[in-house]
Amino acid sequence: MSIEDLIKKCQENNIKAQKELYEMFAPTLMGICIKYCKDQALAEDLFQESFIKIFNKIHQFKGEGSFEGWLKRLSINTILTHLKKQIHFLPVSKDFVEDLTEETYDFEAYSIDFLLDKIQELPQQYRLVFNMYVLDDLPHREIADLLNIAVSTSKSNLTRAKALLRKEIKTKSS
Q: Domain RNA polymerase sigma-70 region: where (predicted)?
């Protein structure tokens, strides 16, 4: 069955098609939830909430653009809606300037598990912006809009996240 047929059957509330769609995209969407949530139980809750929203809103997908992109966006928005209630972003002044000199590291010298663990250890607001900017390739303007923060706040949180990661990597290298 093509993805278009599967979507159409899901739009008709076909349980078998919903199960197939769930099984097809569950690993991808669970990965997104884990990436954004420090707590496994919260990631699982938001994963389930994402699928509930997907099945409730699947009739809104009109076949324009990538269906997987639509699923990911809906999942990320579900996560952000939850996390925005818990995070307090500190505004920064327009004069805020931080040393953006970045040391280079041989990231291949570190396991992916080590790097992902260090990202997960970042404070929530830094991890959120870091994931959105670095891993999801969103521009600061879009991050700011999604999180209802200033662009400068997004940039400063990214800078601070990178600084903490550099410090952790430097500590491991020493």
A: 21-86
